[in-house]
Amino acid sequence: MVPGAPSRAIRATAFLFFFLLGSAAAEDAAQPAPEYVKFGLLRERDLTPFGFLRLDMRPAHAVWAPTGGWGVEVLLGYQNTWAMSPNVEQYLKSLPGRRRLGPADVAAIRALPGEAYLVDLELGLVDVTLHRKLADHWSVNAIFSAVNYSGGFMDGAIESFHNTFGFDSYGRPAVARNTVNVILDLKNAQTVFLNAHLDGGLLDPTFALRYSVAAAPSPWNLVLESAVKVPIDGQRDFLSTGHADVGLQATLQRFAGRHAAYVSAAAVRTRGSVLTATDRTEIVPTYIFGYEYSVSQKTNIVAQYYVSPSVFTHEDTDLEGLLKTKYQMSIGLRHRVDASVWTFAITENMRNFDNTPDIGFQIGWAYSPAFMR
């Protein structure tokens, strides 16, 4: 895939996606739009540890609000990452029993042929987003975030799931559960955190400007957004790269009765990383395909597919697992109660398991008078 330009497969998928929606929802299209309110794509960001501190454009919402309208979102995202190079996986599988990794294990991993890495942690993110509608087509939002790194609580449940269904353990049974272990021995990164406590705290805030081509509910809409991540206190380990990132995003939205389809493309100019020493500037594209279905006037189901190239290049590593494109699938349920909307979603790694979280969850609450319209 060429950075910044969709591949033929992505363009074909988008075309087929909208064609099928139009065919399947032809009867629903005649129904009045306000009967089934749509909220848009899940407003979650990528929680992959390797590129976590960069700006990640939040998927565009589909809420119609009057001029002067406002809203607030609170989102809790949580994920478990167990990722490693093939040589580390083989090393862990050779160990007898479960243990806390120590200096001897670090030395053994560094002695393995080629590059090696292990990232074992859980990450919790809280986003608070404030929205304001300035005019018919224009609105702004600001996102304030905090993160917590830990060993977490999900290792046992994931191992039991793997055992129950006969999936590969990927070396998990060799390492003490619910601990933070980060070992990197790459071209431009030598990092070790064993049984560690990593400091959490406030991340850099993000400020965004949104333009909606349609000024009122319409079967079609195009949403254009720009955003900037502003460093508040220079470089901070695991909290900020110390650099400002900027991004652009375009989202095509199609509404037809109970159905809605979304295709989004974004590009972020970013610099720096959470786990590696790279400080180069690069453009990172992201593509999202989504479908929303109104089960009732108050309950919606959303499914979306996330595709984004790796933030790594051969300048950082030659390990194929870190260079592969990221593919993640999210499925969510939304329910409106008066002026509030509650969201629960699950995100699962779909193809390349060495550069994205194994599984993640999102719980969200949003409030706006617009939900009562």
List keywords for this structure.
single chain; 373 residues; mainly beta; Porin; 13% helix; globular; disordered N terminus
CATH-defined fold name = Porin
Q: Spatial order of the strands in the main sheet?
A: 1-2-3-7-8-9-10-11-12-13-14-15
Total domain count: 1
Shape: globular
Helix content: 10-25%
Mean pLDDT: 88
> In the CATH hierarchy, what is the class?
Mainly Beta
Topology, number of strands: 15
Uncertain segments: 1-6, 23-33
The structural class is: mainly beta
Distance separating the two termini: 43 Å
CATH architecture annotation: Beta Barrel
Into which percentage range does the β-strand content fall? Answer: 35-45%
Element pattern in H and E: HEHHEEHEEEEEEEEEHEEE
Number of helices, counting only DSSP H or I runs of 4 residues or more:
5
Largest sheet descriptor: 12 strands, antiparallel, barrel
Query: Which value, in Å, is the CA radius of gyration?
Result: 21 Å
Which superfamily, in CATH terms, is the homologous superfamily? monomeric porin ompg
Secondary structure: elements and pairs:
Blueprint: H1 8-24, E1 70-84, H2 86-93, H3 103-110, E2 116-133, E3 138-150, H4 155-164, E4 181-186, E5 189-194, E6 201-202, E7 206-212, E8 220-229, E9 245-256, E10 259-271, E11 281-294, E12 299-308, H5 320-323, E13 326-337, E14 340-349, E15 359-367
Antiparallel strand pairs: 1-2, 1-15, 2-3, 2-4, 3-6, 3-7, 4-5, 7-8, 8-9, 9-10, 10-11, 11-12, 12-13, 13-14, 14-15
